[in-house]
Amino acid sequence: MYYMASRIKFRPLFVLLMAVLLAALIAGCGESSQSAAAPSSTLTIYSSGDVNVQNLWNHTLIPQFKKVHPEINLKLIFAEHGVSDQSILARINAAVNANKDPGIDLIDSGPVEQAADAHLLAPMTAKDVPNMAHIDPSLIQQVHSFGVPYRASSVVLAYNSKTVANPPTTLKDLLAWIKAHPGKFTYNTPNSGGSGHAFVEAILNSHLSADSQKKFVASYDPAMESQWDAGMKELKSLSPSVYRQGFYPNGNVAVLQLLANGSIDVAPVWSDMALSYLAEHQLPDSVKLIQLDPPFSGGPAFLGIPRTTQHLAQVYTLVNWILSADVQSTIIDAINGYPGVQWSYVSQQVRDKYASIARSYGTGFSTKFGADVNKQWQTEVAGQ
What we know:
Signal peptide: 1-37
CATH topology of the largest domain: D-Maltodextrin-Binding Protein, domain 2
InterPro entries: SBP (IPR006059)
Protein name: Extracellular solute-binding protein
CATH architecture of the largest domain: 3-Layer(aba) Sandwich
Strand content: 5-15%
Organism: Ktedonosporobacter rubrisoli
Keywords: Signal
Number of strands: 9
């Protein structure tokens, strides 16, 4: 009787304790679910280039992305001037071949084009990255749809408006101006900087058919290089009219310095470098920038996604955000560059600010042809 009475007496307490335990268990499950919803993805980004690109990620892109996507963490691995490009490429290659996560979720410039050629990257389409629809398709084709451009720069023409009232707007006009104003123009040796290289290729292209121009961009056949003869002869004919009767500075910076001290009045320069120099008052305010028709060549910086990343959906989200109009405008202001998307998709305010150069740019020769251009120029223009 005592036993039965005890069971009857303590049954309400038992039920109460079970209820409390059950409530605690449910609450604990709820806390676990909330923990799972907390930041659970960390994307590792590999980037290479100059310190301005490092600052772009650390001070602009990463903190701004965190505000709109707190559930995704971003970690940057940066290698100045691409010193780790090949080791990162080897790491991704090994991981893809083993079908393992490489520990790198996004590549900024550096080895993207090599990785695309080796089919080490995940394909990108407008279905996964809707803002890709705003990119010039020819740029995406450069990496076989395995990447997207997210910033760029191009070679433009710089001129001192104090001494050049009516700057040339076409390559033909520029050549006429150079000959009419001997000593007031130069370009750097094409093997020492992209601005001089772009000028040389522009002259070569002016003597090529449209079909040949495409082949020099997308293929490599040394037998085609005889088509450069007319262009090289024209470049040689300019030498007496070039600064100091044929002085070609070493590097892009040297050209900007000649513009800054007034030694020359006109020169091809990189858009981002010249804009930065103007902002920092290393060039006089009288120096202006324009793009020729047809335009000098330029180059985009691509983003690529290693094929075996375990965070594909989250990386697509990041890339799509980077290609949005507001972020593209921010990138332009941060590094004085061009957008990865077409200019028409950035704000009118930004387009107005960069109106003189806010145009498409040409595509340079393939890497192997480009190297041969440098060698031939050295022999046929500078060496004679």
